[in-house]
Fold each of these.
Amino acid sequence: MEVLPEVDCEEDVTITDDEEDDEESSLSNIRITHTVTHIAKPRPQVALSKCPSSYKENSSQEKLMAAMAENFRQQYALLYPDRKALLLCPVNECSVQKFVSTTLRSTLLPYPELYDWEGCASFVADYLSLELLDPPFELPKQLSSPTWVLQTQRGTCFDFSIVLCSLLLGAGYNAYCVSGYATKEMCLLDQSRQECPLLQPQIQDKTEEPKKPMKKYSVKPPRDLHSNFERRQEEKQQAEAEAATLKKQLDAERLQKERERPPPDPLRGLRVHCWVLLLSGNREIPENFFIDPLTGKSYSTTDENFLGIESVWNHQNYWVNKQDCTFGCNEMTFDLGDLSKWEYVLCGQSLSIISDPKTLEEPEDEEEEMDELKVFEMPPSWVTTIDISPADMEMRYPGGMKVIEYRKAKLEKFAPYLLKDGLVTKLTTYKDLDCTKASTIKEWFKHRSDHLDERELHTDSNVTTEHFRPGRSDALKYHRYVTLVPETERQMDFYSHIRTDGLARRIEKPFEMTETFENRTDFLFYRNAVYGKQIKVIRAGEALEQRPLQRVEERFHRDHSKPASKDVAERIFVVSDRRIQVTFHLEDDRIIPAWLNFIKPKEAADSQKAQAFTPQMVSGFQVDPSTKPYTNLQLYEMLVELMREEENVELHIRDSEKEVRSILSSREKEDSNTDLLISIYNPTRNEMARLHMEEKERMAKEKKQRQKEKELDLLAPSQVRLGLPEVLTSQDALQLKTDCLNEFKQQLFNKASLIQSRIEKETEELQKKQLWYQKNYLTMSNEDEDDYLAYCSDAMFRIHVLKMRLIRHKERAPQKYLALEEKLKRHPRLASHFL
């Protein structure tokens, strides 16, 4: 929610009397001077010609309702002369007095977001801009219709409540508008002393882990030999230290609150405010609560921000509060059927709707008295149907954006597609209350082609973290970095189930890179590479700077298809020392694993031969002494295989380095030139979708036009015989008419003949079947006789249907003939000759 920028919330209050009298006299002696005039931009003028008649005039029911409201106001002023006037019949945007209950228009919009109270409250708070009441202790003189408020996206707190209550009533809630008094911060929409909701820690359900059942023959735990006295003394000292720390923390918080406490408000308890009350019952609402339409937040009915209530109303009735609000709303009850605490304007069916079940159990005498009362129902709403277009729902905020200032935080919200980089929410936290030194900047994005979802920058450490949605070609999920320069400190998380190598995380430092994997077929889950200082390497005739590998460590999960003594758990390639260390998995009944160390033979140089393999180049340990030791050939083959694996590992590491550089390069391009994804179902923004829809509509029109052109012309066959003359004479017209009627008469005769021939054919076949039956009925079986009877039944049915068709054809033939004759007389080419 945003407050219109020309409004200044600072007020200077001067009390002219030297001594304080009662509340009424002190209020009359308050002189309010504004440092800046507290007037918002003037509302746009209403085009009366475009307004419906219900906006510009009152019906007979509304006039009667206004008269009843005026009578109620006079009685109220007589009984309660010290209370403020009620908001009963303010004028609307067309300067016509309307009862407040008829301004509500129950509406359910076709957006799932607006099906619950949280969505409705959030939408109203985001969609509208606030106009402050002037003066703040007076009721508004104008209460606009919800349609006008939504059109201008501006209104007072009363306009906010009317719109929100209309949406809640449409969604099935038992909602009411409340006119009362609230604190200065709530009336002025000042959230600068509140914590940002996005910074509040989410409450997580702490579920206790189920205790493991003790087995009957389990090993008993060792006896605890520590002194219980010493343990209690330590716990006591620790509790005292925690209590002292907590006391210091509470004192510091108290002092901080004292420093941040706003100055006393001279208008406390006098500032008029309007909010929404939701009563329990409908939509599974367990208890009553308030909704502030300016922020969209819910509050308890005993919240200290609400200082008093004058009246409540919905689309059926209006109630005046008769309870004492000296201590706010703490002791108030909201049983609107209790006449000792609430006074209604209209008596009728609405009382039974809002009353509690206990109050419904009334004596029969009271029910008879209620029946005897003359019931006047609330007039229907004069407001037209509330409608919000999808474009307005998407734009959401006035002008597409809004800014909310919280305590040490600033929240900025933007409509989708408003900014080129897809930014929709930006939260900046500060170190000081003046919001001058930024601490963190957190951004949320939508519809980006690079699938960036969230980015956070810590200004102190200059560390940036990015979160990505699934869909990237590199499967990047999370990126933490200081700079996008390669070979610097960073962390990358990936969607491992998408990648073929199962990479889940890559942590890079200037001289180290660690990778973790998931669900690999070779059971590898950890790889750590240590580098040396950069050196120049010549590759393909180019001099490149590269970090040489010093050490590579790999770890593997257990492969149960192999014995533990043969299954590698860890292997370390010490490239700088030309050594390879292999450690196998620990066997179930052992405490030390088997291992082997290899020293790689020196390769051939210019003046030296390659070093031959010797058994002294291998050292190891076997857990089971009875196991047959490895032969020299086996050791040599293992060394050759490990040297080949070392080369492959180095290639994988170099590929990882290339991938890092590729990701960083693509991230730089994506940030500098961001593309937004547009759905194919959004033709307003998707150019290809719009062109496709236009092409589809054009083809449909052309198809319809071709169908019209292909319609049969009754005169076409006869015109061909006449040589298709452009101008018809009277004789030609008569000839065309006669030919058409004769052809149509012949078609009718042919159809009758066809039906008659089918009747004769069916009758002939039935007679043949009957003669066959008379000759063979003595030798027929029961099945043959059943088949004969079934055939006769079907044949008689077909003959009956054909006879009915023939009769109907003969009855309709003259009518069709006359209809064709009349149609020919009205034909464009023959009408001039016969009319």
Amino acid sequence: MVSHKEFVGAGKTPGLQVWRIENLDLKPVPKALHGSFYTGDAYLLLFTTSAPSYNIHMWLGDECSQDESGAVAIFATQLDDFLGGGPVQYREVQNFESNTLVGYFRSGIKYQKGGVASGFQHVVTNDMNVKRLLHIKGRRAIRATEVDMSWSNFNKGDCFIIDLGKDVYQWCGSQCNRFERLKASQVAIDIRDNERNGRAKLHMVEEGEEPAAVIEALGPKSTIAPGTDDEKVDTSNRKKGALYMISDASGAMKVSAVAPSSPFKQAMLSAEECYILDNGVDRNIFVWKGPKANMSERKAAMSAGQQFIKDKGYSNKTQIQVLPAGAETTLFKQFFIDWKDKDETTGPSKAYTIGRIAKVEQVPFDASTLHSDKAMAAQHGMVDDGKGKVQIWRVENGAMAPVDPSAYGHFYGGDCYLILYSYRLGGREQRATTLHVEGFFLWLHPQVRVTQGQEPPHLMSLFAGKPMIIHSGGTSSKGGQSQTSSTRLFHIRQSSSRATRAVEVEASASSLNTNDVFVLKSPKAVFVWRGMGASDEEMAAAKHVVGFLGGSAAQVSERKEPDDFWSALGGKKDYQTSKSLQNVVRLPRLFGCSNKTGRLVEEVPGDFNQSDLATDDVMILDTWDQIFLWVGNDANAVERNGAPKIDSDPSGRRGLPITTIKQGAEPPTFAGWFQAWDPKMWETDPLARVFGRV
């Protein structure tokens, strides 16, 4: 195995490492200048998580040479070998980088003219003799491109940075909005702090109010062009792909068709082979490496992807991701109708991340500190401790019939319920309304839609310490109950907030799960089955279910079941025996819904914060077991109406709770996902705060 001297420290600690190709060799880029790329060069980047897991990126500038492009590809392959073949590899092209790469640079990516051949070096200096113009583009992924110092490059719809060394001017066109101005300011601040070591002064300049220094630098001002629309995306071809198998059995690498169009089935991927998933219409190519594929095919994965792009006549801007089995990205998995990660089962689970550092610290649930700890409230989906006032009605023939309080906590799949919950927050009474319509709960103020079997912890906590019991089918109306089965099985699981739910499931051994407790009632006996990963609280909840079903229960431990137990379930069958679901943690994701850029849904790259909530958009926060729709005060009607209709989850999740929240009325279940949430953030102008402290 060939190993470069720069690889000695590669991947040793979490974080980002960047090298530039100089004279066909690797040279490290100073950390303060990460995110700044010369357009005439090629770069190698390595991102290491604390797991550890790795992402390798080779970045190609528009003007880099063929030799530099070839060199960085060789170094990427060598680095992949050095790290055991497990990293996810990305081919990145200027202006078309993946969200993964863009997310490393919160202050945006800067493209500078020139490169090694022109004598430009990555050196941190205090040089004040700078004179350049940067064009800022992007609402989520910020890109600053160096252009010629000329008024002809300006337009009314964008922000520009006029960098004069000791003074950095942020120029804002008359048609650009406040959120774009705020994002551009991040670039200006980064220039001051990292390129000038804090010694430059920032200035905000409005179109038509340019100071003498700007006029002197750019010359007499000419007519400013109108704003231009951002690149439109052809959404008609989104998610369309074709699947090919790569083979070198004949001595030469060949590609053969597996399936002409998506969606695919996961079983199409054989562990003994490598595959290309062609999403060229969206400028994406994925190369999947089977764990048992031969070494030559695995090592040739990136080059096979590059050759595929050429053979198909795709743009040289097309991204390539090389994915080892087990490290598949969301973009890849969205093409498979039945994708399941290892040990994954149906139903909600904790979120999981690979390839990024999850900065959301897991907070144990403690009801006594619920109101003061937003992070805990958010992670456990709790607006309060569930001790408020509960009222429940059942909908019958279009009218509301009160449910007897003694039956609170019991829900039937054939019924429609309205639940009103009142609680106090910040000294004021708040109300949450839940509508359950034949398997669906809809919460209003905040508005939440919840599918049966996916109830959030807060709803489960409303019934005075008793488990929420969900019956399969039937109705609770008087005289309307359907005939129950002679054998019934209830699955009991505790949420992270310690609330429990008992759901009636198919009375079959295949329904069992080693993580949980089950109550089985047959005509002859009642059993409480405890899985090896079950908790004492789940066992306590089982007593309430037994009390409802009647009879005296026998306790049964997993692997010590009597024959009568298996007979009641129709015999032994395979069931979920992995304990991994208990400790899986996924990273939350934030998306913007906007019709301003041609992309209705666009992910916010990297670790998001409160400032990423664009007040003129609708935002989607995906915490894996719950979805939040955040509506900015200035969002337009198209965005407000379009966002709730979006249903394109690539992982196959269905029926998750969906909560709609208005700007300024964020509950702790939402705010806690954002580090250092400031409830007064929008009371003052964010730009005024930025330039008021610089």
Amino acid sequence: MDDEDVANRKVSFRKCLEHLSGAGKAIGVLTSGGDAQGMNAAVRAVVRMGIYVGAKVYFIYEGYQGMVDGGRNIVEASWESVSSILQVGGTIIGSARCKAFRTREGRLRAAHNLVQRGITNLCVIGGDGSLTGANIFRKEWSGLLEELAQNGEIDKEQVQKHSYLNVVGMVGSIDNDFCGTDMTIGTDSALHRIIEVVDAIMTTAQSHQRTFVLEVMGRHCGYLALVSALACGADWVFLPESPPEEGWQENMCIKLSENRARKKRLNIIIVAEGAIDTQNKPITSEQIKELVVKQLGYDTRVTILGHVQRGGTPSAFDRILASRMGVEAVVALLQATPETPACVVSLSGNQAVRLPLVECVQMTQDVQRAMDERRFKDAVRLRGRSFESNLNTYKRLAIKLPDDQIVKSNCNVAIINVGAPAAGMNAAVRSAVRVGIADGHKMLAIYDGFEGFAKGQIKEIGWGDVGGWTGQGGSILGTKRTLPGKSLEDIAAQMRKHSINALLIVGGFEAYLGLLELSAARDKYEELCVPMVMVPATVSNNVPGSDFSIGADTALNTITDTCDRIKQSASGTKRRVFIIETMGGYCGYLANMGGLAAGADAAYIFEEPFDIRDLQSSFRKAPSRPCSASAYLRSGTWTRTTVRTTESNVEHLTEKMKTTIQRGLVLRNESCNENYTTDFIYQLYSEEGKGVFDCRKNVLGHMQQGGAPSPFDRNFGTKISARAMQWISTKLKEAPGKGKRFMSDDSICVLGISKRNLLFQPVAQLRQETDFEHRIPKEQWWLKLRPLMKILAKYKVSYEVSDSDQLEPMHHRGHEEPAAI
């Protein structure tokens, strides 16, 4: 595709969204199959986006059963009917398995009920069975209408008017068992429940030197078991897709006893409920317990988590994912034609994409077929890049080969934490240390950042030294914001003294600046001419070269949880607006995404300048004007954000207080404006809202940096750090001798996720993409989600947020290395 074609496609895409209208259309939304946290967020997004574009939206209660029964099971939704459901687990519109819908007679009744209300667009939230049923219904639609007309239940005019049915699916499943998406709605929340239990069990297990066997959900998919094993550093994991090899009983017992010999006081074994051996025979938790007790004599307990994993409040990740998918589903429905096949809205990297429903379902069923036929390698491959990556990483980190079987590289690799602490840093260090040792390197830990580096606070760190680090917050190595510039000579001397052949830096913007300083000093100090790579870790998520940073997800969950509690307190007092200040420096990621996850009415960020006219009420209201949310985006890029606000925030909240939703939530990034401080905004809202609502303020502060890392941050830190060490090992193998000098730009990089790809980008290139004054990248992907937050809060804004308006083939992959989050 040449530049002209790309330009034309951009123009046609923009025109399509500008003319997007749901006037005269009706959308039905239903949840089917097993419930999952985040389903309510998806329902809310579908309802509000549908109403926003002028369509009627109907709740279909109790899934397909409600569609078949009709009557009060199909009810028109209003804007307020989905208020206060964002933080609620399960599904408020109910879910049921329906035998009647599997018959043509049942589908005939369902079609009649939909036609009576003019519903020709269906948004189905469920698993592969639910989505398959929707596609069969779509294919039969015209035939069902003809039959209804012949029976005299509808007239020919209705047949013509409702001649085709559009179907868009969203996958709601805690098992993450659907092929075509990196994450399904509910999976991250289920992982939160599992990790909360694992962390709690670890303390009691350690006290009594016990072995715990934990059974998690996953009858046909081992994703929850695998990622929770990766996130807690479990000793052994049993999965349906990758059964243990023959003789696993002896191998597992040897592994457990070796870990105890390393002074580890507990063992954790995680079992998926559908775990099998190579002969497809079940492996149960009780079997494993009996084996450990009989062979090793360890005090062993079994904990079956069960439906706890489905319950509780959805995580920030699931709320944002579901909100994005819900909005994208409505856009897809309104863009659909009679020829458009049913599609699934999916997540690829950090991109929302549309995939053919039939192909996704077929591949999902192929996984089960491969397992039934004992083709387990095919099952893992079909499960997708995320699953395969997790499995390979777990195997490398869980099992240490005997020292005499590891080929020594005779290289010393140092690891350092720089900048403010971020939850997940310790998981990244553990991963790097173990992968480095497995690759034959001697691993050195540098304590207290560049300051400690210059003072020689460097020690060798072993495999067992990092045991149990994944679940610990902060930085065990110690971290400081000090840059290396004034200590370059001392740092070079320490690198020479300890014969350091490569350096891995885990940190935030200070780490990035430090890497630039080390790069610039290479001409002067040859000791710095070694491979260096940085893994981004900061709650601010402001490192150039990566869309995500370790620690940001944990901070986002802290913000979201706090906002939930604050909103709950407001529900009792009524007519109250809360102003919440978040961290992030000049980067508005936490405020914007926290606002989206918590259902905020507004989020003030540096990247979108605002003035007094945006704050004050209607009697001093300014005329409509564009807000420059795209100030830091390249002109003409695919996902350029365009925001046009037509009402001020106080006016918006004043109108809101007239409804049944008598509370407000406003987030403010700490450095969004030097004059419009949190105190100023609080005082302004208090004055302008006098007699209508009162105000409270809350500064979240350093609680956003603390706490145990979220499952996402543990998993992300573990995988990205392992990949960084693989890159270092590859670079060191390229060197013909120990004294090779690495001078090229591609030997000093930042490793990060960019859209759908995992990229090593030279710091020299990233310099051009950095706003050094404000310590943020010039282009930030999350700004395209800015209008989404405003639409869901009922602001009138122009909307351009879809990543792709076309169906993508299932096997499409770019040339770059795919990034599975």
Amino acid sequence: MVNFGKKMMSDQVEEWKGYYINYKLMKKRILKDFSRMLDDQIEKIVLFLLEQQGLLASRIEKLGKQRAILFEQPDISRISELREAYRAVGQDLVKLLRFVDLNATGIRKILKKFDKRFGYRFTDYYLTSRSNHPYSQLQQVFKQVGLGAVVGALSRNLADLQECQGSYLSIYDQPSATPKDPIIDVINASVDKLTRSTNFLRFLGQHALITQEEVPSADEEQIEEQRYSFISLLLNLVNTFLYMVNTYIIVPTADDYSVSLGAPATVCGVIIGSMAVAQIFSSVYFSAWSNKSYFRPLVFSSIVLFLGNVLYALAYDMNSIVILLIGRLLCGMGSARAVNRRYISDCVPSKIRMQASAGFVSASALGMACGPALAGLLQSNFKLYAFTFNEDTLPGWVMAFAWLAYLIWLWISFKEPVRDTEVNIPEGSGSGSAGHVVTDELENGLAQPLLLSSEDKQNEDDDHDIDESEEASEDSRKPATSLRSAYRLLTPSVKVQLLIYFMLKYAMEILLSESSVITGHYFRWTTSSVAIFLAVLGLTVLPVNAVVGTYISNMFEDRQILLASEIMVLVGIIFSFHVTSSYTVPQYVTSALITFVSAEVLEGVNLSLLSNVMSSRLARGTYNGGLLSTEAGTFARVVADGTITLAGYLGEDKLLNVTLLPSLVICVASIVATVYRFDSFMSNKSLKYFCDALAEALDCVQLQKLVID
């Protein structure tokens, strides 16, 4: 994308040029009286917005009087003229909505630029102090439904004119039967740019660590549409679901399988963890491969997973623990989660990317729950020819069949997205989808700075220098090209967040992987009981995220939720220790629920904050933030599974406490690090406050979606 300063000049409405935020002036004087100048800029925008709202309301009121006269004395020609007059109001409303959107983006960007350039979190202070003040421009104007009321009145009056020739029912009486008018579609498209998604979808999407960028231009939206295929997205989500099922379907029976092959029960840690070991390496080459193709990596993944599951199942009849481990390693080599993430980030249109990210997280959670549940159902025991089918081998056979079916579906239906060099953009395409209704004034802006003073010539030279500096800085925002260069971009705050992610993945893996051994040793649980327990844990993911994303995240800052979740994980770990003469089911189940649920909440908030403190150079490319977090989490799982196997040599009666001790130490270390770096963990809520307030002002428009023909 071109730098925002140039884009803002090109998108301005000429007759409103004096009322936009003076973005370049703010950049030049970013240290001198910044707060006061930004207050002045926002006040200028707000007062102009109020003035324009009043003018639009006045025009609608006058047209309403004419409409009332026409209802008493109908005249077809005058009705058509009146409809055109209403549409002219609609065109001006679109201009005003774009004015608001462009200024909101300018304010967000200038605050981000201040924070980034001077390393001071000014954004949170500025927006919090201004929004909570009784005379706040934001509170007085943007958190009300003025613009929404204008849209509602405009839509209703157009609908009444449409119905003038027949029924006199209002659109409020028959909202579902309301016909369409092109200008209302344009208005709704403008409103949608300010209201992309709900808090719950945003919270779920944060788990995926998939970049949510600024609203794209019309050309960029056209490129996104050419890349996007719903079936291809669905195939990526199914791949995510099946891989998570494949990961957890063996957990309830891994200890029994290892015993049947002559190994100790605690070797289940190696069996489960071998998949994670291979994933450490597969994530890198799949991420690199996705730079060139999405289809071929998914095909390769499906084939490798099919072979890996076949070997896992055959290991029983071959009586070979080595074959079993090779099968699990192959399954890990088929982990295409990096491809799934990249597809959503690069190929799904921005307007539905958050929903797709939430779908990615939901597919993962559902797979985590379905894996153990499916294992609990596979309790048969029979032979077919020379092959044994029992609770140990059936997970392998079932997943092999599932991956074979998926491979066939993938081969038939997947559509490889077009690359940037292959995308065709029609010549002269405008910046909006409503060129037939909106005048050229909306498409063509100014090519000179705003609010020039007597120092015009000097300012123009300064602007040129700033633009050159901004363009030169593009090189410093190129993606990292190696793990080493990516590591150099990790600030202390990012490192703390990755430590937290390592901790929560370690604690969850210890809990899940050793569950069959612990419950068998202390409670004599059957495979079905362990499967039900693990499935229930997995099913808590979405309800908990719904509560946190919808309610708790609106009541507290992300960093506060982060620290509270870490403390709750610590409480769950401490409560899990076996320190008395007896170890009861209520103690184990309660402590497991506290640990697992708290870790799930912590994961969402952790990845949200990680995306805010991580360098923009880690947003794209092979060595991106998603890959780094995946590697940290996968390494944690490997260490946890290795700990289980090593601790098993001390005896099953000591396994629980020995494996919990590292979890306790790492959790305490992460809490100390969080407290130390607490002030540097700023959420993106304050940064997005301006647009969120505008979104609230237009909520009624999103609900009505009024369209007239």
